[in-house]
């Protein structure tokens, strides 16, 4: 993941003598070579390397639109943010936050900010810059932010989406982190005149369209004060407001059965329930049905190659983690061990290991709703509610009240 604010990347002409960001000059062999397939991001992205941004942290704020040290530049960004963000205090997720310059402006306007960036040195500088403010910062992948079940009023992203391998997937993930009626604020562009890189506004509008109730594009090219100089390439912000109606994430869980045993994965590095066991799982993506989703997740997490006829829907559960988390619909699918190959841990950054456990003797160190789902499945139920109350632990606790409510139980 690159940092969320890369500054000016214009190709130079004699009328534009300002320096390029280090490592991204037109003559540099490491310069991105342009877009790959539509919607799939740039074809070559050395700037996505974390080491690049670690090295850049030292001088990152020297760019006018990074450090916002010029009072006129700072005031221009503050004025823009005031129109993009809600009037009242909101939870703002700043992805690819860099050294926290935009996060500081948002905090000064009364918002509660969580910044995420993959560079520890950038995060260190952001924490120092916002010391004493209502803000927190995490080191992590902005495409898969480690925020657990938290939801936000605004997801703010500047000059980041163009560099991701799958912008459409990132947008779906970010939209899922918003409360109903929340807003995506996407500052993007096409930098350079002879060999431009980035995402045109019409392309980003197409990608965001299926997720949003309303979209609006504002041209920022002519606002030289935002960039600290005149620019001639395409720069814009896209504002996308999500529907206000109630929506729920649909997640899928794979129950691999080996006789009396089931396969459990230990969560790690996700920001939610890390260290606890649960079934291999994920969520359905836009336009994907639940069976397609669980087959995809089985391949991504376990290396299993499953066909539709290999999986069987075993249980459906509406569940909610402890508030303020929002409800989800969980589909549990069963598959017999040996089908599709031998399971192995394909995502060690998200899973600390796989282990078999007896279904009639499940371990205590599990995600509570997943354990409830497996116990409901063992009892023969097909439909459950599992609704955490305020103060409930995420982990299963045998001393806590049971929250599972069968919906197919006899009167």
Question: What does the secondary structure layout of this molecule look like, with pairings?
Answer:
Layout: H1 50-56, H2 64-67, H3 71-84, E1 91-95, H4 101-108, E2 112-117, H5 120-129, E3 135-139, E4 152-158, H6 167-175, E5 178-191, E6 197-198, H7 201-208, E7 214-219, H8 224-227, E8 234-241, E9 249-258, E10 261-267, E11 277-278, E12 281-283, H9 290-302, E13 312-320, E14 328-336, E15 351-358, H10 368-378, E16 383-387, E17 404-406
Parallel strand pairs: 1-2, 1-4, 2-3, 4-5, 9-14, 13-16
Antiparallel strand pairs: 5-6, 5-8, 7-8, 9-10, 9-12, 10-11, 10-15, 13-14, 16-17
Tags for this model:
nine-stranded mixed sheet; 10 helices; eight-stranded mixed sheet; Nucleoside Triphosphate Pyrophosphohydrolase; disordered N terminus; 411 residues
């Amino acid at each position: 993941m690159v940092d969320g604010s890369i500054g000016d990347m214009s190709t130079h002409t004699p009328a534009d003598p300002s320096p390029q960001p280090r490592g991204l000059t037109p003559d540099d062999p490491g310069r991105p070579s342009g877009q790959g397939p539509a919607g799939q991001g740039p074809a070559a992205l050395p700037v996505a390397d974390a080491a690049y941004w670690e090295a850049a942290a030292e001088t990152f704020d020297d760019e006018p639109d990074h450090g916002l040290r010029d009072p006129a530049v700072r005031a221009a960004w503050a004025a823009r943010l005031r129109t993009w963000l809600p009037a009242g205090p909101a939870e703002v997720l700043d992805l690819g936050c860099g050294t926290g310059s935009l996060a500081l402006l948002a905090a000064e306007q009364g918002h509660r900010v969580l910044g995420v960036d993959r560079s520890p040195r950038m995060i260190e500088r952001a924490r120092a810059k916002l010391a004493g403010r209502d803000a927190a910062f995490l080191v992590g992948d902005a495409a898969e932010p480690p925020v657990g079940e938290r939801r936000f009023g605004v997801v703010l992203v500047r000059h980041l989406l163009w560099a991701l391998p799958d912008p459409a997937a990132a947008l779906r993930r970010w939209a899922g982190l918003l409360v109903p009626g929340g807003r995506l604020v996407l500052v993007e562009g096409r930098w350079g005149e002879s060999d431009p890189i980035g995402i045109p506004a019409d392309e980003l509008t197409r990608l965001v369209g299926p997720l949003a109730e309303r979209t609006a594009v504002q041209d920022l090219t002519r606002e030289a004060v935002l960039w600290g100089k005149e620019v001639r390439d395409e720069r814009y912000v896209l504002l996308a407001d999500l529907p206000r109606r109630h929506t729920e994430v649909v997640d899928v869980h794979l129950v691999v059965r080996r006789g009396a045993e089931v396969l459990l994965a230990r969560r790690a590095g996700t920001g939610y329930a890390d260290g606890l066991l649960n079934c291999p799982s994920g969520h359905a993506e836009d336009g994907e049905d639940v069976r397609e989703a669980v087959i995809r997740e089985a391949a991504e997490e376990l290396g299993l190659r499953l066909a539709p006829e290999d999986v069987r829907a075993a249980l459906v559960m509406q569940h909610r983690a402890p508030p303020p988390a929002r409800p989800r619909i969980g589909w549990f699918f069963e598959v017999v061990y040996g089908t599709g190959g031998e399971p192995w841990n394909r995502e060690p950054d998200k899973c600390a290991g796989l282990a078999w456990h007896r279904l009639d003797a499940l371990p205590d160190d599990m995600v509570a709703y997943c354990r409830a789902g497996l116990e409901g499945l063992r009892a023969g139920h097909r439909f459950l509610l599992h609704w955490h109350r305020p103060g409930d632990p995420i982990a299963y606790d045998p001393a806590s009240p049971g929250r599972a409510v069968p919906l197919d139980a006899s009167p």
